[in-house]
Design goal:
alpha/beta, 5 helices, 7 strands
């Protein structure tokens, strides 16, 4: 890992480490990452015996990186298509701790990145909109009515596209 960080020292680096062995000696890992200014990607995924342990806190002052993969444990390792593992919709309540962690991190770092990787059926779009709302950020654009019906937590948060059948001809 030190060799890899050395090779990319000219660039901002974020490392997504998943195996628990990386968090067994966190002080050593944090010292190494800090010496290169590398961010430890905070991840949410199904938790297994070998999953990394994290605290959602930033480890460097330059940037924070949080990645939400979903919690589809049933299809994480056994699935028909690779995207099946990301077939998970976070509830509004499940997103609250991530919004809180991002808010706290933003007070300590120059830039905070949050990525929703639960892309199956645009669930990441719905969850990202809820997170933006929870963070007090504006939600630009308009969303199709069918999308808001599919993801009812978006009702009242996003602008809905006008129904084309109800438009008055010009």
């Amino acid at each position: 890992l030190e060799w890899l960080l050395q090779q990319f020292k000219e660039y901002p680096v974020a490392l997504e480490l998943r195996h628990r062995s990386w968090s067994d000696r966190p002080a050593d890992l944090l010292q190494l990452l800090e010496s290169f200014g590398a961010a430890w990607v905070q991840i949410d995924e199904p938790k297994f015996r070998g999953s990394i342990r994290q605290n959602l806190l930033p480890n460097v002052k330059t940037f924070y990186y949080l990645r939400l993969h979903g919690r589809n444990a049933a299809q994480w390792w056994k699935h028909d298509a690779s995207e099946d593992r990301y077939n998970y919709l976070y509830s509004a309540a499940e997103l609250k701790p991530f919004a809180s962690a991002a808010r706290e991190a933003a007070r300590e770092v120059r830039k905070a990145y949050l990525y929703a990787n639960n892309h199956f059926s645009a669930k990441s779009v719905a969850n990202a909109a809820i997170l933006k709302h929870d963070l007090g950020q504006s939600l630009g654009g308009e969303y199709p009515q069918e999308f808001v019906e599919r993801y009812p937590d978006l009702k009242g948060l996003v602008r809905v596209l006008p129904d084309p059948l109800l438009r008055t001809p010009s």
